[in-house]
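Hi V.,

You were right to ask for the full record rather than a summary. Here it is.
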Amino acid sequence: EPAARAESTLAHWPVQLTLVPPNAPFLQGADLLVAAHCVPFSYPNFHQDLLKDHALLIACPKLDDFEAHLSKLTSVFQSSNIKSVTVARMEVPCCSGLLHMAQEAIRLSGKNIPMKEVIVGVRGEIES
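Predicted structure:
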């Protein structure tokens, strides 16, 4: 039987951290999902399980400019009244930098924003 066609739950554009203004309307009061670039390709239920009801920002802690992303994310936290942050990353070591980036941005923002981490395995399953 063919699987039912999944619907996108993406509610805004852009999603790339570099391109998003820190005060973008879709960030105001949002539950934020900060996802590594590889996560949506690796985790087949990304939209339904992680993205639904979240604003999305994507970044790669290995290939992108870490300091620029840290500065941008700090600005987002300072100006957007974010309610919560979920960091979705891959299990590979280089991806752990995304969690560090989010933690440091929250600290630098001076805000107390609840954060959780979701780790996706290279075979497409949630590890934690």
